[in-house]
Amino acid sequence: MMAYNGLYVIDVDAILDGTARRLIESGEVAGKIVIHKAIVELFYTEARKGRSSGITGLEELAAITQGIPGIEVSIVEDERMPRELDYETVKRIVRDYAWRAGGILVTSDEVQMRAARALGVPVVFSGKQAREKLKIEEYFDDRTMSVHLKEGAPPLAKLGRPGRWVFVKLSDEPMSREELERIAREIIEAATQRKDGFVEIDRLGSTIVQLGDYRIVITRPPLSEGWEITAVRPIVKLNLEDYNLPDKLLARLTERAEGILIAGAPGMGKTTFAQALAEFYARQGKVVKTIESPRDMRLPALITQYSKNYADLGELHDILLLSRPDYTVFDELRNDEDFKLYVDLRLAGIGMIGVVHATTPIDAIQRFIRRVELGMIPSIIDTVIFIHEGEVRKVYELRMTVKLPTGLREAELSRPVVEVRDFITGELEYEIYTFGEQTMVVPVRERKSAALAKLEGMIKHLIPGAEVEADGNTLIVKIPRHSPKLTARRVKRVRKLAEKHGFEVRFVPL
Fold first, then answer.
1. Is pLDDT of 5 > 70?
2. Whole-prediction pTM value?
3. What are the domain boundaries of the chain?
4. What's the order of all strands across the beta sheet hosting 259-264?
């Protein structure tokens, strides 16, 4: 092993996660401290792209080089530095420099530590710091669903539960950019240190972090006019049994449902239900995996959670086809590529549970209409579960049939029709079919209700004293036993009127 001369070479990850600064401040690392110029250039490039890692890295560098009294830090460079820099290239440059200079490498990357020791380079492993309560966590209590921090505005929080919440002001003092930058830096440092932390997306002007139970979105100029941090945390964790689902629906989920859509408006509890359903299948001995962006479900270790941000959809497609899970939870379906992956995996025989934003349950189905052929929809989606205020409010099942659509009269207009029925009652609520080049989504129940009211008036006019009821597609006409106006001609006219509006007629005595 080479003898070292008290020269400490700081690695890029130890700067980014703040562990190098803490070791220097505590005096555990003292002497001659050097930082390779490649690290400065890398952070500069990332910051110019608007990425939080670059901004945080430059702030940490400034804190080390200028903010610690009595510490002398040197910036070094060599002719071996390439024009294009990425994190792995910079880590190799720093490791090689420590080896050539006979210095001690300060790193918090275990792989970098092993590589340096293989070269005979002494290492100070800055490690993972003990978990401290972050500033963002101080805004949360047991009832807090989310915290909203905005430059120039007072901090706000959403208290309550899905569908039933209120906005409250946490302080009257508006937040400054410096405060938000400091909180953002702390979040990024924690995400790079903690095993339960991930920087899921880091783009120009925005960063999405999953930190334990917290999903944190950071936006900054030029994307937004000022800095903003939104942190969301689930406040309830439910089992499927907590939803008190009807036995008929539980049997459906257990025995038949393999193309499931969980729909609802934002903040209504879709992901919480999807999480409960994933655990329900796992307890039944099914192999369950998830695709998330970000990975914010709280699931047991036997359920593998994949991030859409760390692999392209083609790679996820191959992994899931080869590993063949019984069910895959896709949270959330947003763009064409997401829907295509859902469809491909479902048609390959994998049970799919998709989470989509929708204000009504039929809207969730319409998200598929322009993306797949109409006749394939019942093969892809068999069950739609609509969540409102944390409860299951509606369940649809889809069936394919050939029939004359409700409201059409000519028999030759029969065509393939997707029926959307209320799963609990069996009542037909929507019909989906093509008419010319248009795809029609027709609310059958509303149409029949209006038609029934109109028919009732006509029938009572033709047969005074009659009563009219509907039983599905059958119109029950109750007539007085000795009605003087009940003639064969009027009966025939009633039948024609009913058929015109899509009903069959059955006459019974009153």
1. no
2. 0.69
3. 7-125, 136-232, 240-403, 446-509
4. 304-307, 288-292, 327-331, 351-357, 259-264, 383-388, 391-403, 415-422, 428-435, 438-443
